[in-house]
Amino acid sequence: MRLPPPWVSSGPLLARETPAPVLPEQDHATMDAVESQATTLTVVVAIAVGGVALVLLVLALLRLVF
Fold it and tell me: Which of 7, 22, 48, 52 has the fewest CB atoms within 10 Å, measured from its CB?
């Protein structure tokens, strides 16, 4: 009977997990202010794009009618 090499039957090799890094404290007030500014900018851009789309739609419909 032939036995397998010793490295085959030694079982799987497992890497040890490294501990999670310590995260710095977060400034929630600043994060809320930045998030509020980003939301305002997003709404302004959406309104502007919607206005331009509405004007283009009206112009296209007027061109079809007249």
Answer: 22
**What is the residue whose two structure tokens read 């500014």?**
37
Q: Which two tokens stand for residue 19?
A: 């501990």
pTM summary value: 0.61
Assigned domain for 54 exists:
yes
Q: Identify the pLDDT of residue 14.
A: 74
Q: Which domain holds residue 57?
A: 39-66
Euclidean distance between CA atoms 38 and 46, whole angstroms? 12
- Provide the domain count of the chain: 1
Average pLDDT on 44-63 reads: 97
